[in-house]
Amino acid sequence: MFTDKGPVFDTTKLLSGHPQGETLPSLDLEALGQNTWAATTMGLTAWVGPWGISYASNITPDKATGIEP
User: Fold this and answer.
1) What string of H, E and C letters represents the secondary structure of 13-36?
2) Per-residue confidence at 47, pLDDT binned at 50, 70, 90?
3) Do the beta carbons of residue 15 and residue 60 sit within 8 Å?
4) Tens of pLDDT, residues 8-33
5) In whole angstroms, what is the distance from residue 46 CA to residue 69 CA?
6) Rounded distance, CA 27 to CA 50, Å?
7) What angle do CA 5, 8, 9 make, to 5 degrees?
């Protein structure tokens, strides 16, 4: 979320992984050329680069949706 003082992260979602349905950045791979680039989502939960796509995992201690302690 952005405020007049800059971005403020929603701390209630820390360690919950990449949100289902959040779109990845649109990149013109031909214009980027060499394998020296990477891009991420605004929430820093997914990264796109020459290796493919990496998603953050849900590592919350929630028995229904995360990992079990």
Assistant:
1) HCCCCCCCCCCCCCCCHHHHCCCC
2) confident
3) yes
4) 877 777 777 778 788 777 766 666 66
5) 25
6) 12
7) 170
Instruction: Report the alpha-carbon distance of residue 24 to residue 47 in Å, rounded.
Output: 8
Tally of residues, the chain: 69
Average pLDDT over residues 36-59: 81
User: Can you give the pTM of this predicted structure?
Assistant: 0.56
Q: Quote the CA–CA distance of 45 and 11 in Å, as a whole number.
A: 14
Q: Are 13 and 45 within 8 A, CB to CB?
A: no
Contact status, residue 8 vs residue 52, Cβ threshold 8 Å: no
User: Phi and psi of 12, rounded to 5°?
Assistant: -75, -15
The mean per-residue pLDDT over the stretch 36-41 comes to 78
